C-alpha cells in the first residue's frame, strides 16, 4: 500500500493519543452558513473585472451538479445590482464556484454573494484596479502560513486595519506535510487534516478545505481581493520542474502529484487562469493603472532546473534557469513595454545574494541560479528601466535589500533595483547559525533583517516612492490582534537603492470602506459563540473521490466531543459496513473507508451519539 494510506491510519490514532490532551484550535462551522461554510473570496482584480469565489457543500448528494446564483452590487444590502448570473458546479471541480465578473467600473468597491436553494453566502467585498495615474496604492504582502505552527494572527490584523487595496500572497498558502511533519506548535496543537502527507487530488482538496475554514483567513478573503502565486509547499518542499525534495519513492510519479496540486490550487483560490482549463501557468501581469504593474512570477514549477547548491559548474552554467526561457522572455518584454511607473515582481524566493563567510547559504534561492539573475539585472540596466521592486516570501524572515551589481557600494551605488522580503505568517524563522549583524557585515547590500518575528509587510506606493512597512504580531500561541511596527524602508522614484525612515506610511482616507457584514443577509446571530443545535451537529464537508474505486474518505466536522459512527448500506437498506469511533474531538476529521463492493450507488450514514445523522450518497465505479 502507499505511504499516505498507512500514514493516515497510524497518524490518526497516535496523534489523537499524544496531542489531543489539550483543546485543538477550533474550526467553527456555524450551521447558519450552510451550504457556504468556506466563505467567499475574490482575486486578480483588473480595471473592469474581478474573480469571485465560493465553495458549495451539498447537503447529502455529492454526485449531482448544482446551480449557484451569484450577484455583485454597490451596497451591502445587495439592492444596487450591477452584475448577476448562475454558475453550475459539480464534483469535478470539488463544488467550488469561480466567476470572472466583467463589465465593472475601475477603482470601485463592490459587494457580492452567492445563493443556493434560497440560502445566501456571507457577502464579500472586493475592489477593481484603477485606470490612469493614481496618487497612491497600498497592499498587504504575506507568505508562509503553516497551519500547525499557530494562529493566523497576521491575517486577522490585516483584516481589522481596513486600509489596503488588495492582499498579495507570495506562496506557501498551505503545507503538504503530515501532522507533526514540520514545526508543530505544541502550545496550540493545531493538526493537519488529512493527517497524512498530501499526495492525491483528494488530499490536496481536503487540505485546502481545512485551511479555508480558519476564521482569520476566511474573513480576510471576505474583505479584500487576493493576488496569489504558489511556492513549493502547495506541492512539495523544494519543488522544481521535474521533482521535489519531499517527493519520495512510493509516492507515485511527480508529474501526477504536481498536476493534483495545481488543479486543487486553481479550484480553491480566486486566481484567473490564462486560458480555460490551464492549471499550470500562474505567471501573469496585474495592472493597477499607470502607477503599478505586478509581474507575478513562477520560480518554482514552470521552468526551474533542479537545485544544485550555490557553487560549481552546474550552478554557474550560463544557460541555467529558474524561470524557463519562455517566462524569461515574457518578463523582459513586459518590463520593457509597461506604461506603469512602478514594476513590482511578485517572486517566491530571495532574489538578492546572501552569503555567510563568503559562501551562498541557500541554493533554492536565486543564488542557485546566478546567470539568470545577472541577465535580468543587465536587461534592466541596459534598457534604463527604472522603478523596479521585487517582493519576496519563502524564507520566513524579513529583509530589505539592494540588488547589487559587481560594482556595488554600500551607499547604494551599483544597485540594479531593490527587494522587500516579508516574514512568515506562522512558519518558523530560517535556521541561521549566525546573527543579523554578522550577515549584514558580510552582505553590505542587505539593509534590514529580522530573523525571529512573524507578521506581514505593507507595500505603500505613490508617485514619488515605494515603501515597505514591516509589522509583527506578538504571538502565535493564541488568537490576538496585537502587533507592532518593526521598520520601514523605501526607494525613491528614479533611484535604485533603499533609504530608511522612522515613520510608517499613512493610508488614504478612501480606503476606510464599509466592510462586508460577517453574516448572510438572512441571519443575524444573537450569540455567535454558542448554538445549542450546533453542539450536536455533524456536517459532511466532502467525499473524495466520488465515484470511487476501492477507497473513499469522507471529510466531516463535529462541534463537540462525541462518538461518531459510519454505516454503509446498499439501496435496499442492507448494511455492508459499520464502525464507531469513540470520543471524537471537535473539529474537522476524515474517515477512510475501504469498500470491496459491486459497482452501484450506496448510502453512507454519519451519526453521532446524540442521534444527529446525515446520509451521503456514494457511487462505486
What does the secondary structure layout of this molecule look like, with pairings?
Elements (H helix, E strand, L loop, with lengths): L2 H17 L20 E4 L6 E6 L10 E8 L7 E9 L6 E6 L7 E8 L2 E2 L3 E4 L8 E7 L10 H9 L4 E4 L31 H12 L2 H9 L1 E4 L25 H15 L15 E5 L3 E5 L28 H13 L4 E6 L7 E2 L2 E2 L9 H13 L5 E5 L5 E7 L10 E7 L14 H7 L3 E5 L4 E8 L2 E9 L9 E10 L6 E3 L36 E7 L6 E8 L3 E9 L4 E10 L2 E8 L5 E9 L4 E8 L1
Helix pairs in contact: 2-4, 3-5
Strand order of the largest sheet: 5-2-1-11-10-9-21-22-23-24
Shape: globular
- Please give the largest β-sheet: 10 strands, mixed
CATH architecture of the largest domain: 4-Layer Sandwich
Strand fraction equals 25-35%
The residue-averaged pLDDT reads 91
Rg, alpha carbons: 24 Å
CATH homology superfamily name of the largest domain: Alkaline phosphatase D (PhoD)
CATH class of the largest domain: Alpha Beta
Give the termini distance in whole angstroms: 20 Å
- Our count of helices gives 8
Low-confidence stretches: 1-23, 528-533
| CATH domain fold name of the largest domain | Purple Acid Phosphatase, chain A, domain 2
Structural class: alpha+beta
The portion of residues assigned to helices is 10-25%
State the main characteristics.
single chain; 621 residues; alpha+beta; Immunoglobulin-like; Purple Acid Phosphatase, chain A, domain 2; 10-stranded mixed beta sheet; 7-stranded mixed beta sheet; globular
Brief overview:
This protein is α+β, with helices and mostly antiparallel strands and 621 residues long.
Amino acid at each position: 500500500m502507499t505511504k499516505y494510506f498507512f500514514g493516515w491510519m497510524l497518524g490518526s490514532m497516535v496523534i489523537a493519543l499524544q496531542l489531543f490532551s489539550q483543546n485543538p484550535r477550533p474550526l467553527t462551522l456555524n450551521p447558519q452558513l450552510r451550504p457556504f461554510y468556506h466563505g467567499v473570496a475574490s482575486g486578480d482584480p483588473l480595471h473592469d473585472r474581478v474573480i469571485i469565489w465560493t465553495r458549495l457543500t451539498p447537503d447529502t448528494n455529492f454526485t449531482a451538479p448544482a446551480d449557484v446564483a451569484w450577484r455583485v452590487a454597490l451596497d451591502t444590502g445587495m439592492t444596487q445590482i450591477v452584475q448577476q448570473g448562475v454558475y453550475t458546479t459539480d464534483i469535478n471541480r470539488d463544488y467550488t464556484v469561480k466567476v470572472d465578473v466583467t463589465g465593472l467600473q475601475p477603482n470601485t468597491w463592490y459587494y457580492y454573494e452567492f445563493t443556493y436553494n434560497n440560502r445566501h453566502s456571507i457577502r464579500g467585498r472586493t475592489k477593481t484596479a484603477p485606470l490612469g495615474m493614481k496618487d497612491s496604492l497600498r497592499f498587504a504582502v504575506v507568505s508562509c502560513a503553516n497551519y500547525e505552527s499557530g494562529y493566523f494572527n497576521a491575517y486577522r490584523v490585516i483584516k481589522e486595519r481596513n486600509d489596503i487595496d488588495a492582499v498579495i500572497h507570495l506562496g506557501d498558502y498551505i503545507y503538504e506535510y503530515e501532522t507533526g511533519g514540520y514545526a508543530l506548535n505544541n502550545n496550540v496543537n493545531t493538526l493537519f487534516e488529512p493527517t497524512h502527507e498530501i499526495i492525491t487530488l483528494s488530499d490536496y482538496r481536503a487540505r485546502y478545505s481545512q485551511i479555508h475554514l480558519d476564521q482569520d483567513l476566511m474573513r480576510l478573503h471576505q474583505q479584500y481581493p487576493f493576488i496569489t502565486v504558489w511556492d513549493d509547499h502547495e506541492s512539495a518542499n523544494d519543488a522544481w520542474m521535474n521533482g521535489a525534495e519531499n517527493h519520495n519513492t512510493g509516492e507515485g510519479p511527480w508529474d501526477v502529484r504536481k498536476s493534483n496540486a495545481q488543479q486543487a490550487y486553481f479550484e480553491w483560490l480566486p486566481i484567473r487562469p490564462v486560458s480555460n482549463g490551464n492549471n499550470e501557468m500562474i505567471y501573469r501581469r496585474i495592472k493597477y493603472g499607470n502607477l503599478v504593474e505586478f509581474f507575478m512570477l513562477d520560480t518554482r514549477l514552470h521552468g526551474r532546473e533542479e537545485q544544485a547548491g550555490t557553487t560549481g559548474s552546474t550552478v554557474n552554467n550560463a544557460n541555467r534557469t529558474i524561470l524557463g526561457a519562455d517566462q524569461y522572455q515574457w518578463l523582459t518584454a513586459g518590463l520593457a513595454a509597461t506604461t506603469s511607473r512602478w514594476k513590482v515582481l511578485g517572486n517566491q524566493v530571495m532574489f538578492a545574494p546572501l552569503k555567510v563567510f563568503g559562501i551562498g547559504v541557500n541554493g533554492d534561492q536565486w543564488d542557485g541560479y546566478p546567470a539568470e539573475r545577472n541577465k535580468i539585472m543587465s536587461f534592466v540596466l541596459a534598457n534604463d528601466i527604472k522603478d523596479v521592486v521585487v517582493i519576496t516570501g519563502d524564507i520566513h524572515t524579513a529583509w530589505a535589500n539592494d540588488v547589487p551589481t559587481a560594482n556595488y557600494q554600500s551607499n547604494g551605488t551599483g544597485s540594479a533595483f531593490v527587494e522587500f522580503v516579508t516574514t512568515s505568517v506562522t512558519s518558523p524563522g530560517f535556521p541561521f547559525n549566525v546573527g543579523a549583524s554578522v550577515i549584514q557585515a558580510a552582505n553590505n547590500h542587505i539593509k534590514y533583517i529580522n530573523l525571529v518575528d512573524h507578521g506581514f509587510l505593507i507595500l505603500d506606493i505613490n508617485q514619488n516612492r515605494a515603501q515597505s512597512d514591516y509589522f509583527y504580531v506578538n504571538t502565535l500561541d493564541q488568537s490576538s490582534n496585537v502587533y507592532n511596527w518593526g521598520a520601514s524602508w523605501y526607494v525613491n522614484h528614479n533611484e535604485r537603492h533603499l533609504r530608511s525612515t522612522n515613520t510608517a506610511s499613512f493610508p488614504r482616507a478612501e480606503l476606510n470602506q464599509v466592510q462586508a457584514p460577517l453574516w448572510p443577509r438572512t441571519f443575524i446571530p444573537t450569540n455567535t459563540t454558542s448554538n445549542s443545535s450546533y453542539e450536536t451537529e455533524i456536517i459532511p464537508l466532502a467525499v473524495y473521490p466520488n465515484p470511487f474505486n476501492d477507497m473513499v474518505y469522507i471529510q466531516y466536522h463535529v462541534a463537540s466531543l462525541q462518538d461518531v459512527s459510519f454505516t454503509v448500506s446498499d439501496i435496499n437498506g442492507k448494511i455492508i459496513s459499520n464502525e464507531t469511533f469513540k470520543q471524537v474531538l471537535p473539529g474537522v476529521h476524515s474517515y477512510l473507508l475501504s469498500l470491496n463492493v459491486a459497482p452501484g450507488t450506496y448510502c453512507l450514514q454519519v451519526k453521532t451519539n446524540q442521534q444527529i445523522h446525515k446520509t451521503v450518497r456514494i457511487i462505486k465505479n
